[in-house]
Every structure is written in C-alpha cells, then in structure tokens.
Amino acid sequence: MLTSLFIDYLTISVTTSLLILSLLLLTPLLRKHYTAKWTYWIWMIMAIRLLLPFNLSFENIGIKVQLPDNSVMNKAIQGISQANTRVEQPIAALPVQAAIEPVTQASLLFFILILIWLIGSALFFSYHAAGYYSFRKQALCWSRPIESSQVASRINSIMIAMDVPSAIAVVTSEKVPNPMLVGFRKPMLFLPHEQYSDEELEFIIKHEIVHYKHRDMLYKLLLLTVNALHWFNPFVWLLVREANREIELYCDDTVVSKQSLAYRKRYCEAILSAIQKPSSRFLVLSTSFLGGKHTMKQRFTSILSMKKRRNGIPLFCTVILILGVLAACSTVSNGSDAVLKPGTIYSSLNGKQVDSHDVIESYEAQKKIADAPGATTEDEQRLKELATKAADLEAELNPKSALEQFDEAFAAYKDMFAIETAHYADQQDSNDPAVQRVLYELEQKGKLIAQFDEAKWSKVENSELLLERFNEEKYKLNQELILRRKSKNSEGQS
C-alpha cells in the first residue's frame, strides 16, 4: 500500500507540474484580464489534486508507461523454454536463483526512496507546525485585550457591519510583526499595537475578516500539506508561492470592490503605514496584512486598477477539464484498473501486469520439493508446469523476433538429432530392420538440418520466413517417415 501511494503521488506530481508551468507562464496575462477570484480557485483546485492520491481510469484511454526491459528476469528465465524441449536436461538446473538477489536489491533501493520521501515530508511539516505553535504560544503569552474602549467599539461595529459579531477575538501583542489572523477553530486577530487611525483600523479589520470569511487559514493548511507531500518538486513550491499571492490579491479585491480610486489609494496607504518589520518564516499558517516586496507591488497594481476584468468561469472549467484528462492519462493501464507496483514487470506491448516474484518463489519452492528424497511424479510434473509458466513469462516480457524463434527451435531439433545419432553410432552395421529404419530417418533429418544450416548462414533465405519454412519442411518429413513406417510394417506382415 505504501509503495502504491508513493507511486501515485509521484505520478500526480509529474503530470500536474506540466499544468503548473503553463499557468505560471500565463499568470501575467491572467491577472491582466481576469479577476483574482478565479486564479485563487484554480490554484486551490490544483492543490487539492496534488493532495488526493488517485488517478481516474477509463476504458481504452490512458498513456501506457513502457518500462525498460528487466534484464534480471531475462537472465532468471533465460533458456527455460529450451529446457522444456531438450531431452534429459534436468529442469531443476534452471538458473532462477540468480534473479533473487538482484530483485531484492531493487526492492531495497525502492524502499529507501520511499523512506527518504516520508522523512522529508515529516520533517518539512513538523518544522513549520512546530514553528507555528511556538510563535502562537509566544504571541498569546505577550497578548493583552484592547485597552482603548474607543478602539474596541470601532472594531465591534466593523464586525457587526460585516456580519461576524464576536466570531474573532482581537488582542494586541508585542510579538507579532504586523496585523494577522491566527488559528483555525477559534481564530484570533493579533495587532502589534492600538495606535491606528479609524480609517487604518477599518482597513485592517476588514482585510482580516475577509480572510476569515474566505476560510484562508484552511487554504494555507492545504498548501502546507501539499508542499510537505511534494517537497521534492520545485514546481509545487512555485504553486504554493503563487497561491499565497492570490490569497492576498483576492482579499484586496474583495475589500475595495465597487470602491472609488480615492478609497483604493487610502487602502494602499494604510497597508504601507502598517509595515513595521518583516514577517516571520513561521507564519505560513496565518494571514498577514502585508507581504513581500514583489507581492506588495502586485497588490498595489491590482488594487489601483479600475479596469473591469472578465469573468473567469470558462478559464476555470478549462483547467478542471485539463486536470481530469491528466488524471486519466497518468494511469498505467491497458483498459483495466492495473496499479503500478515495484517488483512488477509490465509488458511493453499491452501494459499487462506480470508479477515475476510469484514465478521465482514458486519455482524455487517446488524445485526443493522435487530434489528432496522421496519426490513423487506429481512433484516433478508441478515443476515442469512452473518451468512452462516461466517460459511464458519470458515470452511476455521479451518477445522474440522470427529469427530468434527459429534459432531456438532449430537448436532444439539439432540437439535431439545429436542425442539419437550418438545412441545409434555403434549400430551402423546392424542388420536389424528396426535399427536400419531409424538410421534412414536420421539420415533424412541430417539432410534437413544441413539444408537449413546453409539457408541460415548464406543469408539467401528471408529471416522472417525461415521459421515458417522450417516448420513446414519438418512436418512434411515427419509425414513421409510415418508413411514409410506404415508401408514397411505392411510389407513385414504380408
């Protein structure tokens, strides 16, 4: 399950990176023509996609990931099909044991990669979570209620006007660098001091309440989790950076919506006047009234722009569609719900899943049984079946060319011929009719072998037709020899 999860996240990370890169390149154009609301939601949907470890799978749809040929398995089952056709070759001698150690090493390497991913994710998340709780604890320790009744009354009236009475506790704390909203279940608005003008205070409170209404704290938690899971992907880091900018841009757009240019200018001045010192790196789980230099420039440009921008519904739907297509195409499947697993070999032709471990382990276990004293015929038969299964596995993993198939079949035929010839080598002068019949058949087989030896090495014969022609000639010779035996038997009986 863990390996499958890792593969899913890796696949999602790679495929989604293509869309992240495209959107990053289009960001200046999108901000010019579309409201921040839609890019805000687009980055959120992409973050959710990166969080969910699943891929869609549709019948006959999908990009089949062709893995390289597995040389370990090729060596492990090399020659097994020949072993089934050769006479008197012990099946127990098949070279399967050599595959076990390399396969184990590959599994160990994959396990190490998973371990590195898990440790990296845990360290990343723990670092930011611990920093956030430490900062929050310090801010609370140094916090105090709003002392000025006028400021408290002004804050309360703004909250009532925005329909969030008593939802957010507002306190001051010397430990916060700038106004910010902190917390999930019971959020608190921290102010570094109370010395704000009524208008500045209004802008600050409105800004943070909009963050609260947008549930931006949960959005930031989502971004942190995604960043922790995909810490190895630089494109995800860029996504998190852009999403945080869009959070502030969308909040600003909401605050100054339908307001005059003068109002927007005063809002920008309030942001500038609130700057005291840079934000802490542990504030990824808080909403700040301020931001970095580049972010502030983008925010001011967006706030002061009076140009009417388009509705982003078509853009939003397009991104959702692309994400759905990427999710479907990233599934390694041949039309079924195949799951890519380490230690599993996939056919380069049709994506079919073939588990090599079962063949190796079953063969080794049966080999020990067949070699043990008192082994039965059933044990040997079971071993032969596993050898055949291994040969079929080799054919599935590494399909042979027509010439390779001919070489294999021709070599087996020559081996059989050599064994029979050696057996009757000292009976050349025998007058036994049965022996004479066998010697005649061996002579005909020898001519057939010589014919195809010449055809193979002369390169006159088309290699694609060589196997087909060899099988035809072999069949024809067998039929002639059978007819000759029947004829001889009939003559003997009469």
Comma- or semicolon-separated keywords:
single chain, mainly alpha, 7 strands
What's the arrangement of secondary structure elements?
Elements: H1 2-33, H2 36-51, H3 71-76, H4 80-85, H5 97-141, E1 143-145, H6 149-161, E2 169-173, E3 180-182, E4 188-191, H7 198-213, H8 216-229, H9 234-256, H10 261-274, E5 286-288, H11 293-304, H12 313-329, E6 344-346, E7 353-355, H13 356-371, H14 377-397, H15 402-423, H16 433-458, H17 463-493
Helix pairs in contact: 1-2, 1-9, 1-12, 2-8, 2-9, 2-12, 5-8, 6-7, 7-9, 7-10, 8-9, 9-11, 13-14, 15-16, 15-17, 16-17
Care to give the gist of this entry?
With 494 residues, the chain is mostly helical.
Q: How many helix segments?
A: 17
Helix content: 55-70%
Question: What's the N-to-C terminus distance?
Answer: 75 Å
Taken in chain order, the helices and strands follow as: HHHHHEHEEEHHHHEHHEEHHHHH
Q: Order of strands across the widest beta sheet?
A: 1-2-4-3-5
Proportion of residues in extended strands:
under 5%
Principal-axes geometry comes out as elongated
Global mean pLDDT? 75
- Secondary-structure-based class equals mainly alpha
Radius of gyration: 38 Å
The total count of strands amounts to: 7
Runs with pLDDT <50, length 5+? 58-100, 331-357
Largest sheet: 5 strands, mixed
